[in-house]
Fold this sequence. Notes:
Chain A is built from 15 helices and 13 strands. Chain A is α/β, with parallel strands linked by helices and 521 residues long. In chain A, the strands form 3 sheets. Chain A has a 7-stranded mixed sheet, with helices on both faces. In chain A, strands 10-11-13-12 form a 4-stranded antiparallel sheet. A two-stranded antiparallel ribbon of chain A has the order 8-9. In chain A, helix 3 packs antiparallel against helix 10 (357-393) and helix 10 crosses helix 12. The longest helix of chain A has 37 residues, at 357-393. Classes of the chains: A alpha/beta (521), B alpha/beta (447).
Amino acid sequence: MSMNNQGRPTAPSVANSNEVATVSGNKGLLQDEKLIFEIGTPRRSGVDFGEVPSGKSRLGGMERTSEIGLPGLTEPQTMRHYVRLSQKNYAIDLGVYPLGSCTMKHNPRLNEKVARMPGFADVHPLQPQSSVQGALELIHELAHWICTLTGMPSVAMTPKAGAHGEWCGMAAIRARLDADGHTHKRRVLVPESAHGTNPATAAQCGFSIDEIPATKDGRVDMDALKAKLGDDVAGIMLTNPNTCGLFERDIIEIADLIHGVGGYFYCDGANFNALVGRVRPGDLGIDAMHLNLHKTFSTPHGGGGPGAGPTVLSDALKDFAPLPFVTKDGDSYHFVEHKDGAGAASFGRMCAFHGQMGMFTRALTYMMSHGSDGLKQATEDAVLNANYVQASLSDVMTPAFPGVCMHEALFDDHFLDGTGVTTLDFAKAMIDEGYHPMTMYFPLVVHGAMLIEPTESESKQELDRFIASMRGLAERAKAGDVEAFQAAPIYAPMRRLDETQAARKPILRWTPPSAHLEAAE
Amino acid sequence: MRYLPLNENDRRAMLDVVGVKSVDDLFLDVPESARLKDLVDVPRHQSEAAVESYMAKLSGKNLSAGSAPFFCGAGAYKHHIPATVDHLIQRSEFLTAYTPYQPEISQGTLQALFEFQTQVAMLTGMDVANASMYDGSTACAEAVVMATRVARGKKMKAILASGLHPHYAAATQTVAQYLGIELTDNPSAPGQDHAAIDQIDDNTACIVVQSPNVFGEIVDLEPYAEAAHAKGALLIAVFTEPVAFGAIKSPGEQGADIVVGEGQSIGVGLNFGGPYVGLFACRQKLVRQMPGRVCGETVDANGERGFVLTLSTREQHIRREKATSNICTNSGLCCLAFTIHMSLLGEAGLRQMAETNHGRACQLADELSAIDGVELVNETFFNEFTLRLSKPAEAVVEALADKGILGGVPMSRLSGDNEDLLLVAATEVVSDADIAAYRQALEAILA
Lengths: 521, 447
């Protein structure tokens, strides 16, 4: 079996189908659905337009004469095509989706309704500011909630995703160091358990990366950290709770040590949902932290985005925040859009406009709905649910670290030793049981990692069913049923897919059959 | 609390299983000084009705595009989005799914991404496209960084031709400044300006040219492509209005190596600037240097065609500090909206949409340029053009807004200079009555 760099098998090993082929290719509710390029035609359309005013073309001889080839479908065909596709997806609304570090919590539908209100969804980013005072007020209000929840003095609202927020925080650190003439400070400490975006971000900001090992209990090795301190240290990027789902007990001391050498503390806020209402990052000595509005504050993941990554900044960094930002004068709000006045020290603009307004409306709706009491309760329930799962499985699976966890429970694959079943096989068997698998093979510091994050949205009944399924699978693996695991999934819309072939000979688009023939000739 | 399924009995029973007395015992790793004693200082929970009412009031303080004669563009455009699009993207299976890391139960998202990539490649005239970036400006910045990677870091100069949207130039500068990329920026001025061609030298990794450019002018990319290729540099073509490619030649036909731009016009609302969907396409030979998520075709264990995320060895979760980009999301739901809208349009619909846009813009340009104190700056345009006004554009736009008309974007809003220039866009949603109202109001303001 071939493996990728994470030691994760990438090719299917067993084809063992007990299915009877249907005549149509459909399988009951699951409809076989071809690509739009195979069912639509360039001459068909599902949109009607009114009369076109005709006049002299102003295209300057640049008219497109070539065929574009884009297929069209009428409205009923379009509905069927995408409804059929949708039924091949797992979703939070369907069942338990315990992807560790991804925080798949319920997406309240009020948030969707609010985001579509015309004063938010149908306003242009460059309308006169007098015509969008409500939109500016909303951004200002959300910033107030974020600063209050984090205990930080300032927040940059424009970053468009978590990794974009990381970049924002690290760029603010870089800009501050440059402004102070500390151009020798270019080394950033990153724990080896960090999410891959952390080292990637630091590198994109022109820093070098120095990895810090973890202790046996899954936290930063303080001796190793102290040994790596020096005048060239620009800062540290640390996730808290960390990627093992554990709170970094020494976090205040870490902040003091980093500040002691003139560095800055970037906290990856991907797991802030474990802290909201109980711990404020501002009390831990951090200088910058992004929030994933699509995790902690429940803006929908949408099959991979869009996200939103507002980034809180300390007093030391706030003057370097990206453009534009909202300020309030008396009763009116306005944008600072250029590098002068209040924006003079800004490190620049991160995107074309003001960030993810559609996510701001949803996040603020979520925050107001929960309120101070509900946010705290959500945090506590998320942590309790994770601990309940960990405690209920610890006799049949192997927790990676002893003791309680925060919002996610991390297991390694030792309980599968000698069974021939891998973490991947186990995950695929969960699909047949009706669950989305947990995060697997991450963090890299744990062998065959299985990271389970149930979130506060799961009821005890759902969790009990999930736990029973996981226990049953663990027992089945130990009983030696390896072939069944390797054949899984069999009840999914597709059997295991060959990722090796996909990467070796990338086919990234549809091409017309005639092009295949030409290529063959 | 309506979103939290656990009740007190559940919590008690679960704490017993965990073996702790109270939930506080789960937070003992938090240093004592950092444990909050009271609730944070924000209001307590509220009913759905109360929150909805509050938000509706905030929404009502804004003048929405659909409620006024509307002519703003400059990188974001108001088009009609078929009701089908918003209905489909709100299906739970699309809305509440994560990144398709488990392909066996994510074929809906994956097949849609494969369709998206193909549509973007066709539209731009390129070989391949990725599964989208945050927006057009961040796609532009990523393209410049990619060009230096293609040059293996041996060429670190990037030229931004005049007419590139100033916000795209700024977003690119922001990323370039810490990577040792030397940007040669050209001041934004209307009219055809080929100065950038003479700046191409042996150290140039790429030249970045927008068409239609920020003033709405349609730029012939071929001279740029020839000059760039003669020096071994790449041509990065930028656009902010994808509907234009239903009417004008694609960048691929004109020799572009990388094409990036904003896809918001197809399927995605104005949303006050985001979320949008950055489109990113390139030549096949550059694909392994392309940033961002990509979906590829493969087969399953039964030999049936399926789709997976692929080429992840370029990405941060494998390559870490050596990754092509730190990007970790795409604009998933927005690219689904793009794909659905584009599937509804098809080539015939897109061409008709483009024709309608161009027709409306021509009509508007004729009407407005007939006013005393208004000069049409453009020689060519698609659905957006630039007017030189006898009064500062910012004040004119404010005066128009007071009359309930959203009349365009002052160039000075983007770059701080060119005070007399106003960018004006017209799409298929503009009516004869809107145009008449605009003409009448502008005449009065400039009189």
